[in-house]
Every structure is written in C-alpha cells, then in structure tokens.
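Project standup — Tuesday

K.O.: blocked on the structure for the chain from last sprint. Re-posting the sequence here as requested.
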Amino acid sequence: MCFFLNLGTAIKATVAAVILSEIVVAFLPDPSLSVMYFAVMDIPMLAFLLAFFFGHRLTCGLWCPNLWVDRLCVHQTDPLYKSKGIEGLPTFVACSSQLLMLWDQTYFDRLWCMLELSIFVKCRGLKGLRFVPLWLPPWLLGQMLFAYIGSRLLAIAVACAPDSGINDTATYRAVYGDTFQWGVQRCLSYLRDCQSYLVFLVPSVVISVVFMPRKIEGHKLMLENMRLFDIRDAKCALESDRRTIQMQVAELFDGLEEPTVSVALDTESTCESWDDEVALLHSYDPVLSHANRLAARAATGCPDLEACLKSFNEYIRTELSKAIVEEFGSELDLPWAICALTCLPHTLGFIGLSWAGRPLFDKLGFESLGQYLIITMLQYCSLGVLFLPVAHPILLRVMNWLAAGPAVLSSIAAFGMGVLTYSFLLYFDTFAAGAVEAFGLTMHPAFLFAYLLSLSLIAFIHFQLFGRPRWQVQRKIPADAED
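H.V.: unblocked you, prediction finished:
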C-alpha cells in the first residue's frame, strides 16, 4: 500500500533532497568526505525511505486519495453489519475513481475480488485500474538497499584514498602528445581504471541473483492466471453466495444495456433548457430489473448465464491482460523508471566521487571548477540513468535462460553473468565518459563523435529493452483457454 500511496511523494522528496544537498555541498568551503557523502547520499536516501513509508502521514493525507478497503470497511464479525456492508459494496466500487489491485497468486481465485473488478471495469473502464504486483515493492527496496551498501563501501574507499582511481592525478601527468593522442590516452586510462569500481556493484548482483528468479516466476504465474482465467473456478468463502455473485457478474456482461440501435423518440414534453432535457432522459430508467433482464434474455436470444460468464472470462484474458502487459511487459521486462530508481544509490555514490575530486580539478587538467563539475556530473548521471538501469532486464533474460539447470549451478552461473554484465556496462559507460571528458578538454571532434556514437548505442539498447511496443511481448490466448 505504501508503494501505491507514497512512491510519487518519495521520488519528489528525494529529488528535492538531492538538489538541496548539492547546493549545500557546493557552498561549503572545504567539507570533509564523510560530511560530503552524508549530504549527497545519506540524506536523499533517508528522505526517500521516510516519504515512502510515512508520506501519507507526514503530508496529513493532503496528497493521498480517500480509500475504501473492503476488509477494513466491511464488518468482519457482526453478521448484520457484514451483510449491509456487502450489499453496499457494488455502490462503493462503482463510485470509486480508481481500483487498486494488489496482486498475488490467489487474486484471480477470489470470487469477491472478481465481482469488484467486474463492477469497476464496467463503470470506469481500465484507465482507472491501478495494478501493483506484491513482488514489486520488496524487490525495489531490496535492490535499493544493496545498491546503498555498495555505494557506502565506495564512500569508505574514497575517504581512505580520495586521489585514487579516476581521480588519480599521476595518470593525468603521464599523458603526453598532441590533443588527439592526449584524448585517446585519457580514454584508455578511464577504461583501465573503471574495473576497480566493479567491486562496489557486487552487492547489486547478489540481490539480483536472489530476487530476480522470484520475479520471473511471479510474473509468469500472473500472466498464466489471466491466460487461463475462469470465474467459475474462483473460490468463495460461503458457497451459498456463489450463484448470487455469478449472476451479478453476468448482468454486467450480458450486453443488454449497451446501445445497438438509436431511434427518434417523439414526446409531448418540451424542454426549455439542457437541465430539463437531462431530467427527461433520466425519467426513462434504462436499468432493467433482475426479472425483466431474464425475460429479455429469453425473448431476444441474448446470452445466458454461462455465455455471460464466458464474456467476462474473455475480458480478463484479453483486455485486462493487454493493459497489464502494456504497463509491466512480460516476465522479462521491467519499467525503466523502476530500474533507474533502483540505481539511485549508485548514482548518488558516484556523484559523491565527483565532489571528492573537486580539490584536484586543476591537477586533472580542467581549466575551471565549473568545467570539472559539469563534465563529471554529466558522466556520473549518465551512468545511473542510461547505463546501469539496463542491467536488470539483461539479467532477467540471463536468469530465465539459466533457470532450466540445477538451482545451485544456476545461481553460481547467474552470479558470474551478473558480474560480467556490470563489467561490460562499466566499460561502456567509461568509454562514453572518457570521450566526453576528452572532448571537453581538447575540443577535438573525434571525441564528440565517439560520445554521440555511445549515446546512440545505449539509446538503441534502451529501445530494445524498455521502448518496444508492448504488443510484441503480449502472449496470445490459446484455443483451450476459451472453454
């Protein structure tokens, strides 16, 4: 529930905390590395956690929707109040602007949930449906936690040796030659030093090996449940309620109230205003009673109960499944925003690395502090926004391919492939980082071309992993699911 209520607030609070912390660090004359990392990494992460878990309380509910939770709002012990609450359930659902589906493997097996879903989609459609699989929040928080552990280890390493790695001034002094040769050697030094930071990404690999197989299995099960959905197989706490609930669902999907033919209506009443016309239309109540609906079905040959339930089954298998696939993709897909959010601690940690090298900017070849900060911030923000997020969908595909083998061997192989994936992404990013820095310092067009080429390649990878039309990954309904 916190994921649905507070994720947007948490992201806004984190962005605000990042901006404020960067401003504070920029104006501090000579902050220690511990203070600097506390400001640029710890405070934004603390802001995210506080807003994520307590945002609805901290804002006094001003930005939160009014919720109607059936298990909390329907009395669970008193039979009289419980029956009244159940009678009013369709009204509450129909009057709601959004329906939150907290999916687990039993969601489509609960008949009352299917009644709520059928009422909402008929009254509001799928646009107001908010779908949150229950595996997603723990996976997000777990990924962020282990990314923070890796970034905290990076902060400790930088505090012990602030002029090592990319900030090593000896590497810059060893560079020689004309502008092109100097830029090439600078790029090569980046590629040589980048792998020293791979160890700080290992915690992210570990949590991926643990959580991603569960994500794959959970997502496969979700799509499979929708593909084979049949409301007649759903469970009901009281078997005596099954027929009543099925009848209500059937009435929503029998098509009797959907207009098929429009004819002119002559009436002696005259309408002097729009309000009078609306009142006149409302006087002709189109809603059929239960008895009249059954009579209409018999007289017009409209679908019977079984056919109406099959119509609802088809709606879940096609329309609902399509909407969820468009939002979350297949079991091998993840939204870019979620992937980028899991990399936030890494992004903040490497931004701290930029601030750690601030006293050395002139020794690193930069003409001014402003030039140093602009180039390094561009480098490290690109790492967290463009390069590291693609690791998750790549690892999902790798682990899905390795899932057929023995569990232990699959985990070991997945860990090795995860390390290789992050190693490749570090090489890819540092090639782009070295190119943009070489261009900023030498203004040689060859390095601008190399930087734009790397951006084009990562944009193509993003399109393949995040931007493909979702209909390409949607599963087709087999013929045996129609019965």
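K.O.: great, moving the ticket to review. Strands lie at 99-103, 129-133. Residues 1-64 form one domain.
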